[in-house]
Amino acid sequence: MLQKALLLRREGDNFDSPYLAETKKGWLLSNPVEFIAWFEGKTKSGFQKAFIYESIKYAEPYEKWLTDIRKKDCQIRRLVRYMKAWADLKRSEMPSGIIMTILIGENFAIDDRDDIAFHDTLVNIRHYLLSNGFKCPRPTTPIGEDLFAEKSELEKQFFMNALNALIQSANISISAINEKEACKEWEKHFGTRFPCHMAKDIIPPIIKNEANLDALKRTAVVSTPWYPKN
Q1: 107 near 128, Cβ under 8 Å?
Q2: Contact 8, 15 (CB under 8 A)
Q3: Where are the alpha helices (DSSP H) in 58-193?
Q4: Under DSSP, is residue 22 helix (H, G, I), strand (E, B) or coil?
Q5: 149, 25 contact by CB (below 8 A)
């Protein structure tokens, strides 16, 4: 799909950085491959831009990366999915998927448990926005473009209030000693696509770093909550 999209560019464009049509702004310089390379660099997946730019020469390794490596489970990918699932439930009031991806990519905090990693990443995002004047600079062409620039102060405050509420629930959830109670906090923000009936209504014998207490990951793996409901 990306290779086809790159072909649907303005006539005479540079292949690496084509101009893409935007309904309000007209032709805008863009580089979707650079954005993919930036995010895959965060995941350390081994992606190479040449997989796309030289698709014929690199057809075999690109297909292997696309089918085997890229689909391999990775915590940063899961956190992006959680973030998008949260935004999807709130719909139009929330920032776009590309903003969510950048915020996760720039503030990712790794942990053995997804719920703790997600909580710490959310805290990092809040600090990141408050310390840089609530900006989300694009890491690829056009580099430095603030993707929050056209958001109103009301929209920014809505997002910050929602983020604070999510952080508060995340803090409660990771402190819970009962998986089902922990899941209820996530369900407040992810809706019924995080079905808490799948969580265990037990107190694990070992509380600290107990994998079974990670209600966020357990319910997400079963329910794939980032898929839109039809």
Answers
A1: yes
A2: no
A3: 59-64, 75-90, 97-107, 114-131, 153-175, 179-190
A4: strand
A5: no
Nearest residue to 196 (alpha-carbon basis) of 175, 220, 174, 177: 220
Let me know if 73 is exposed, middle or buried by CB neighbors in 10 A (0-12, 13-18, 19+): exposed
Q: Which two tokens stand for residue 11?
A: 């006539």
Note the pLDDT tens digit of each residue in 18-27. 555 556 666 5
CB-based contact 18:6 (threshold 8 Å) = yes
Q: E strand or H helix at 29, and its extent?
A: strand 26-29
Q: Is the pTM of this model over 0.85?
A: no
pLDDT digits over 28-39, tens only? 666 778 888 899
Structure tokens at 92: 């139009």
Rounded to 5 degrees, what are φ and ψ at 79? -65, -35
Residues 6 or more apart in contact with residue 83 via CB below 8 angstroms? 100, 101, 103, 104
